[in-house]
Amino acid sequence: LLLGCELTASTKSYTFQVDEEDNFDHILALSMVCLTDGAKDECNVVEVVGRNHENQEIAVPVANLRLSCQPLLSLDNFKLQPPVTFRLAAGSGPVHLAGWHRIMHREGTSFEEDDDFSEEDEEDEEDLPPIMPAKK
């Protein structure tokens, strides 16, 4: 599925969300970020806002566009896992983002199988030698 959104001075963010309860894996691949008609010659910084492994919000700049020197940036299908927010952190745009939303059927395993697998992992971990500090 194609995805597109535009960030402007009046609409500074766009959040891409999916139903987390469905039985599918979702991947968002961002392919291009570009300034569109009406953009001023100013720095337009686009950030991706998501969550890290500790569920803390993090913002990472992915593009710094300027009409006179870099009006377009190819992101080569930069893969993100929803939910994700795109934010215009600087500038007034308009900045257009384009990409793909890929939906894949999740390989189904029951919770019972997952629990059994976890117990096996714990048993295997007990057999491993302890981690030693690095030598200086």
UniProtKB/TrEMBL annotation:
**Keyword Phosphoprotein annotated:** yes
Q: Which UniProt keywords apply?
A: Acetylation, Chaperone, Methylation, Nucleus, Phosphoprotein
Compositionally biased, Acidic residues: which spans?
Answer: 110-128
Q: Where in the cell is it found?
A: Nucleus, Nucleolus
Give the Gene Ontology MF terms in alphabetical order.
chromatin binding; histone binding; RNA binding
The segment(s) forming the Nucleoplasmin core domain are 3-102
Classify the main location.
nucleus
Q: Which domain of life is it from?
A: Eukaryota
Start and end residues of each stretch annotated as Disordered: 108-136
Q: Which family does it belong to?
A: Belongs to the nucleoplasmin family.
Name assigned to this protein: Nucleoplasmin-3
What is the native source organism of this protein? Melospiza melodia (Song sparrow)
As recorded in Swiss-Prot or TrEMBL, the protein's gene is named: Npm3
